[in-house]
Amino acid sequence: MENKKLEFLRIQKEEIIDDLKVCISYTPNRDNDLLCFMEQYLKEDTEKRTNLLKEIKK
User: Fold this and answer.
1) 8-state DSSP, 2
2) Where does the source fall among the domains of life (predicted)?
3) Rounded CA gap, 58 and 55, in Å?
4) Cβ atoms of 52 and 40 closer than 8 Å
5) Element (DSSP H or E) covering residue 40
6) Are 41 and 53 in contact, with CB atoms under 8 Å apart?
7) Which of 38 and 8 is assigned the larger pLDDT?
8) What's the confidence (pLDDT) of residue 23?
9) How is residue 47 annotated by DSSP?
10) Domain residue ranges in the chain
């Protein structure tokens, strides 16, 4: 019984760690990056949009 519980906890731990790794590792995705920049641009004050626009154009 104890071994099953330990194995279950080990598997849970590995799944949690894998989920966390996905959050901290960056996979380039130009479409996603562009959408994020566009969202930031729309939310930003007018005077700060110029810098974001330069980044979007890259």
Assistant:
1) H
2) Bacteria
3) 5
4) yes
5) helix 30-43
6) yes
7) 8
8) 66
9) G
10) 1-57
DSSP 54: H
In this prediction, residue 5 carries a pLDDT of 92
Q: Cα 21 to the chain's mean position, in Å?
A: 10
Q: What angle do CA 7, 5, 21 make, to 5 degrees?
A: 45
CA dihedral 43, 45, 46, 48 (to 10 degrees): -100
What type of residue sits at position 30? R
Q: At what angle do helices 49-57 and 30-43 cross, to 10 degrees?
A: 160
pLDDT tens column, 9-52: 999 999 999 888 776 767 788 888 788 778 888 888 888 788 87
* pLDDT(4) > 80: yes
